């Protein structure tokens, strides 16, 4: 079971997540998010990470120029798109990408997996009106189809208390969490990160 911790805003949180064995960290380049990081902050976090931790850059309806600028300055391994980006836009940076879908019905993921066939995985998140993600809200996991043509990353309101059950129920390729391992917006809690990673791995046994 792969685990991504998203919305890292402090060097020490990135280092701790890596020490705890996380597979990927997410950096939010979306000014409306409380977890938004500057290029300078992102570069400092990336520089402090050990090898083999995947760095994912998260964008919401960003301009091409902004994504290109971040890519030129920050060593991102993967992109994560949370807005209304087209498949062509997502693919045009020639990096592996994840496409987030805010799930309201089973058909949402099926349709998105067909539309974004070039994505590395679909990321299933909760639908909250007017907010693109990072809400700490979960959704009905039974809406996730069993036969998706792309790997599934489960997110949305996961936390140390529900991740083991979520992994057992959904059997995703990976889980992604932001709010559920925080002590305050953008501030990760080491004990919660450890419990989350442990729960995710137990659930997959
Ligand atoms: O983390 C954010 O602030 C954020 C902002 C805009 C879009 C997505 C965002 N985060 C992603 O949202 C999901 C769910 O987060 P949570 O665990 O429910 O807080 C997750 O994939 C984050 O990467």
UniProtKB/TrEMBL annotation:
Residue span(s) of domain N-(5'phosphoribosyl) anthranilate isomerase (PRAI): 3-197
Pathways per UniProt: Amino-acid biosynthesis; L-tryptophan biosynthesis; L-tryptophan from chorismate: step 3/5
Extract the SUPFAM superfamilies matched here.
Ribulose-phoshate binding barrel
Keyword Cell division in the entry? The reply is no
One GO molecular function term?
Answer: phosphoribosylanthranilate isomerase activity
Q: From which residue to which does the signal peptide run?
A: none
Which EC number(s) are documented for this chain? 5.3.1.24
Q: Name the Gene Ontology biological process terms.
A: L-tryptophan biosynthetic process
Against Pfam families, the record matches this protein to: PRAI
Q: Which family does it belong to?
A: Belongs to the TrpF family.
Q: What is this protein called?
A: N-(5'-phosphoribosyl)anthranilate isomerase
Per the UniProt record, the lineage of the source organism begins with: Bacteria, Pseudomonadati, Pseudomonadota, Betaproteobacteria, Neisseriales
């Amino acid at each position: 079971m792969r685990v991504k911790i998203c919305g890292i805003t402090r060097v020490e949180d990135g280092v701790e997540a890596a020490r705890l064995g996380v597979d990927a960290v997410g950096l939010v380049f979306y000014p409306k998010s409380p977890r938004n990081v500057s290029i300078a902050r992102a570069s400092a976090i990336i520089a402090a990470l050990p090898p083999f931790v995947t760095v994912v850059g998260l964008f919401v309806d960003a301009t091409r120029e902004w994504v290109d600028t971040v890519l030129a300055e920050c060593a991102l391994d993967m992109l994560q798109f949370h807005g209304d980006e087209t498949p062509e836009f997502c693919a045009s940076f020639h990096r592996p990408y994840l496409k987030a879908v805010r799930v309201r019905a089973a058909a949402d993921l099926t349709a998105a997996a067909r539309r974004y066939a070039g994505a590395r995985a679909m990321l299933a998140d909760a639908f909250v009106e007017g907010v693109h993600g990072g809400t700490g809200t979960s959704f009905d996991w039974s809406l996730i189809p069993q036969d998706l043509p792309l790997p599934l990353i489960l997110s949305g309101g996961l936390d140390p208390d529900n991740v083991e059950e979520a992994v057992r129920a959904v059997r995703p390729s990976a889980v992604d969490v932001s709010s559920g391992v925080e002590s305050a917006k953008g501030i990760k809690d080491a004990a919660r990160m450890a419990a989350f990673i442990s729960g995710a791995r137990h659930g997959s046994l």
